[in-house]
């Protein structure tokens, strides 16, 4: 999904730039055609009618050069007025050694010559082959084609530059926001997030950064809370053990000393259990942890796990469907057994008459529900109960309330199976823990 989003944003950005450049090019091309509609014709083509008119007038005297020259001297003002440009008559002999130029003229074409003032002069040879008609210097057009083309080219590059600026400006702004957020995050401001628009080109990068920031913030916060909680939990048994060591020299050998030593042994055992619980929670938090899954019949396995509560008060009941007896599902039996026992024992502390375990297997998913009929858990605390060392009842001590890691470990185990655990409504009262995971 992330790769598809990145590809789509890249393709969209590329399409916008390509379409913008194409639109600019087409618009300026249309403008060029509008400004220079007549410049598609050369000067020779535009003055072809004038050459034909002059030749027609001079042809009345035949092809004898002297007669043509005399008629031209008489008609020159009239011809110039009709042509709108200066008209001149030259003898071929006056061209000297311009043989290439004369050869081109003898082919019947109009030849162009640019004089010293950069003005255009048109030449055409009369049918006699002895004389040339020259039109020009031609007047410069109001707007030269070269100037218009130069203006259009400059406008094209300016518009493309503007288009790129408009595209790069939000891109640079978003990159600056990302750089600032990374800088703030590096200064331990873990609340920093990158805010970009839904159409931003760096949206995938910003989303990845925000997810990374959330993950790091969670880990840092969890590490700090866990460190504080561990220090608190270790402080109590260590304080009792230290007090016990100080009291030993003051006691005489006997039953009281033995009882005191047994209490110190209990403190040591409590420390060992707490450390074991913390190591288990830390191991389940490792991202590279690989579970060994086994395929077992879940109903039979549940009956075996709950057999140890056969004589418990209140009783633990199992509610399964007969059609699921033959269904085999995959999971890690050791870890899942620990999760179930942690929850069942939690429910037994508060149940009034019974604890019930039900199982539902549907469409590749297993759903276990463990609920009691005790006072229940306020909905506002449904998420907090799964946090390490969380205790809703502050009056509970280690004998009744454990270490506050049981539910946190159970949640980690379900997450390692690709599932989750949450609390749900239970009528008329009590807590309902729902464990679900995909088994195929």
From TrEMBL:
Gene3D superfamilies: 1.10.287.130, 6.10.340.10, Histidine kinase-like ATPase, C-terminal domain. It holds the Pfam family HAMP. Keywords: ATP-binding, Cell membrane, Kinase, Membrane, Nucleotide-binding, Phosphoprotein, Transferase, Transmembrane, Transmembrane helix. It comes from Pseudohongiella spirulinae. One of its GO terms (molecular function) is phosphorelay sensor kinase activity. It catalyses: ATP + protein L-histidine = ADP + protein N-phospho-L-histidine. Signal peptide: none annotated. The chain crosses the membrane at residues 12-36, 150-168. It is found in: Cell membrane. This is histidine kinase. It is a multi-pass membrane protein. Residues 229-440 form the Histidine kinase domain. Its EC number is 2.7.13.3. Residues 169-221 form the HAMP domain. One of its GO terms (cellular component) is plasma membrane. CDD domains: HAMP, HisKA.
